[in-house]
Specification:
single chain; 356 residues; alpha/beta; Quinone Oxidoreductase, Chain A, domain 1; Rossmann fold; 2 domains; 7-stranded mixed beta sheet; 6-stranded parallel beta sheet; 11 helices; 26% helix
Length: 356
């Protein structure tokens, strides 16, 4: 490709100001590759940046190319790269910890104080994201996928890594999910993938709650046994609230006060509440949590789980395709973002970047 060639990017200039712009094509340096992006998933954080100009204390303070869930084909390889071939399908890990700070040195790279996470407005300058035709990135952040896997499925490696990390955090305090009764509150993409992980790890019974039938239908297709629409059926969790509660572990994926209250009401004494969803300050029923001696576990992003996520999708052990409810070409990015923000019909909406 010539140096004058431009690529398209999905740029957020600020709140409610999303545009397609062009940028010059860059070539990979030592240790880097250039990936022709094929699929990019729109995440809740992308939507918060667009609709609200940030999440909590993280604000969009300069133009940022969005996107941190992507897959594509290797288009060019820089010097000193081994193990990757031009044309190969890869899932791209957006996480790039520094490797040198106290957290990186202590085996907690997800807490890196100099984290460069693609499409994140946490630090200045913002880390530019992956919604673009071509992306130059470190070769170590590219995970080869089998040819028969769709780029859209491969792009779900990032949110699946989030859910694998949540499961690992929960299992660290409560033991294996095998044989457990698990509730997932919030049936968006993260809830749907937490269901898939709980199923894959042998949970005995999986219940899911949401206030939208469309997302609950997807949750059932992702492996849940029981779906409860808590808006239409407020008493729908009664059988798991009996006694002091029947549920061993909850993946709380909504960050809604009502869902957290439901979660605590069904947890058995010494049960585990894994908090995956995030919002601003949120009321929690501390009296019940303390009385039941609930174990509260926060879960933030992922570390080594990205490789496991790519492997589980690559082998077909977890199939994320039922949750992909819409795919839009990059030229219709605004329509894609609108669809993704409509929870009455969407779970995961993706952009496609196939040359057009
Ligand atoms: Zn670090």
């Amino acid at each position: 490709m010539s140096e004058t060639q431009d690529i398209r990017v999905v740029l957020l200039n600020g709140q409610d100001d999303l545009k397609i712009e062009t940028r010059a094509l860059a070539e990979p340096g030592a240790g880097e590759v250039r990936v022709a992006i094929l699929a990019g998933g729109i995440c809740g954080s992308d939507l918060h940046y667009w609709l609200e100009g940030g999440i909590g204390t993280i604000r969009v303070r300069e133009p940022i190319i969005l996107g941190h869930e992507a897959a594509g084909r290797i288009a060019a390889i820089g010097p000193s790269v081994e193990g990757l071939k031009v044309g190969q399908l890869v899932a791209v890990n957006p996480s790039h910890p520094c490797g040198e700070c106290e957290f990186c040195r202590n085996g907690l790279p997800r807490h890196c104080t100099h984290m460069r996470f693609k499409g994140s407005a946490m630090y200045l300058p913002h880390e530019q994201g992956m919604f673009r035709d071509q992306l130059v990135i470190g070769a170590g952040q590219c995970f080869p996928m089998p040819e028969e896997i769709s780029p859209g499925a491969a792009a779900c490696s990032e949110p699946l890594a989030v859910c694998l990390h949540a499961a690992n955090r929960g299992e660290a305090v409560s033991g294996s999910l095998k044989g457990k009764t698990v509730l997932v509150t919030g049936a968006g993409p993260i809830g749907a993938l937490c269901i898939a992980v709980a199923r894959q790890r042998g949970a005995a019974e999986i219940i899911v709650t949401d206030i939208q039938d469309a997302t609950l239908d997807v949750a059932l297709r992702m492996g849940a046994d029981h779906a409860v629409n808590t808006a239409r059926t407020p008493e729908g969790l009664a059988r798991w609230q009996e006694g002091k509660g029947k549920v061993d572990l909850v993946f709380e994926c909504s960050a809604a006060a009502a869902a957290i209250r439901d979660a605590v009401s069904v947890l058995r004494p010494l049960g585990t509440l894994v908090q995956v969803g995030v919002a601003g300050p949120t009321p929690m029923p501390l009296n019940v949590m303390v009385g039941k001696e609930i174990v509260f576990v926060g879960s933030q992003r992922f570390d080594v789980e990205f490789a496991e996520a790519a492997r589980l999708i690559g082998t077909g052990a977890i199939d994320p395709r039922p949750m992909i409810t819409g795919t839009y070409p990059i030229t219709e990015a605004l329509a894609a973002f609108r669809a993704a923000s409509d929870r009455s019909s969407s779970v995961k909406v993706q952009l496609s970047f196939a040359a057009s």
